[in-house]
Design brief:
heterodimer; A: 172 residues; mainly alpha; Butyryl-CoA Dehydrogenase, subunit A, domain 3; globular; B: 229 residues; alpha+beta; five-stranded antiparallel β-sheet; 5 strands; flat
Chain lengths: 172, 229
């Protein structure tokens, strides 16, 4: 199956593609919350879009499109971090410097990087809850649906994550 | 909701997750109880910081991919590394140094990590680059931060109202460094510098903190020379 890009396409985007295109900027922000690394966030966003386009037959019209797409991104990221943990054992340390970015960018994005470092210190399960609710603005019910968790579990992870962030940001 | 109003209830209230009746109960409790108010203020401020820093990302356009050909994340990274090879190589050295500085900072932070929230729960640390800007820049000077006003607070510390990309507010210098005491709840428009001093809530916050008059240019220079202590 081949889905052409908007600029190569002869006709307008269909409904599914339009919905995805509208959601992509927010998905990319969620990717920043998950990966804490702008380059990884961009890669994850593109992969998620490709996966969503390829899996479009699995989406049931009438169900929550945003939740379905966020879930794809989150699951892709879990698969990635699992394989990365193995790979990172052999990766060169210089690779770690990439996420600092160019110096020109460092000043304007200092606050973003600072908050991403704080997110780094949360356990994965708390970080994804915080990213969905506090950064993406999803309701507890929507976030629980994305993570396929009971709402009570989502809520307790969210509260623990926010308490931890408050502690981290109060230190220096 | 449980009878006792705890941090989880305050957070749920801030997130708009409570029924009107529950929300009214939390709101009254927060108005009555200074400790609960501190909890609410802390979480509001954190929320405001994340909104200001992450919000602009969602304003940037993202193109739909060229095709639905799915490759793995590792392949995507490898492809990007290949593409960037020549120009990025140069960044890796300063990048690695910067990374080790950040790592050093984080380790330093972890060693001094207090067991609880701390006695100033509303005092949040600033990114080091912003803290350096507050150390060195005078009011009105262009730079990483823009300082509108410097003043002495009633507790004797020096405070400065400032704006920076994605963050504006009031920071005060305690023994350890600059601490954010007030953060503007609004997301800055187009991610550029907000005009410092035109936020009425911030003006109120200053009015509640300040002892005497704001520093004039000479007093500000003198305070900077003494390291804001």
């Amino acid at each position: 199956m081949f889905v052409s890009s908007p600029w190569e396409r002869a006709g307008p985007l269909d409904e599914f593609e339009s919905a995805l295109a509208r959601l992509l900027p927010r998905l990319r922000r969620f990717a920043h919350g998950l990966t804490r690394n702008p380059a990884d966030a961009d890669d994850l966003t593109q992969l998620t879009a490709e996966r969503a386009l390829r899996s479009r037959d699995q989406w049931q019209p009438g169900t929550n499109f945003d939740a379905w797409t966020y879930r794809i991104m989150r699951n892709l990221w879990i698969d990635t971090t699992r394989s990365r943990q193995r790979r990172d054992k052999v990766i060169a340390p210089e690779e770690e410097g990439r996420d600092i970015g160019a110096p020109a960018e460092a000043e304007g994005k200092a606050e973003l990087h600072f908050l991403m470092r704080a997110m780094d210190r949360l356990p994965d399960e708390q970080r994804e809850a915080v990213a969905l609710v506090m950064i993406e603005g999803l309701s507890y019910a929507e976030a629980a649906a994305v993570l396929e968790l009971p709402q009570g579990t989502l809520t307790s992870r969210l509260v623990r994550g926010r308490q931890a962030l408050a502690r981290i940001l109060s230190e220096e | 909701m449980a009878e006792r109003i705890d941090e989880a209830a305050v957070i749920a209230w801030l997130d708009g997750e409570l029924t009107p009746a529950e929300a009214a109960r939390v709101e009254q409790a927060v108005a009555r109880d200074a400790a609960l108010r501190a909890v609410a203020d802390r979480h509001r401020m954190i929320q405001a910081r994340f909104a200001a820093a992450f919000g602009p990302i969602a304003q940037e356009p993202v193109a739909l991919p060229r095709s639905a050909k799915v490759i793995s994340f590792a392949e995507a990274r490898a492809a990007r590394a290949q593409k960037e090879k020549a120009p990025t190589r140069r960044w890796w050295i300063p990048g690695a140094i910067a990374a080790s500085l950040v790592a050093g900072l984080m380790i330093g932070q972890m060693q001094q990590r207090p067991s609880g929230i701390g006695d100033r729960p509303d005092a949040l640390a600033l990114a080091p680059v912003l803290a350096r800007g507050l150390d060195s820049q005078l009011a009105g000077e262009p730079g990483v931060v823009r300082v509108a006003l410097s003043f002495r607070a009633q507790d004797g510390t020096y405070c400065r109202s400032f704006s920076a990309a994605h963050l504006a507010g009031i920071a005060c210098r305690d023994g350890q460094g600059w601490r954010l005491r007030y953060a503007a709840p609004a997301t800055p428009s187009q991610g550029d510098y907000r005009m410092a001093g035109n936020d009425p809530a911030e003006a109120n916050a200053i009015a509640g903190m300040i002892a005497g008059d704001p520093l004039d240019a000479a007093a500000e220079r003198a305070a900077r020379a003494k390291g804001w202590r």
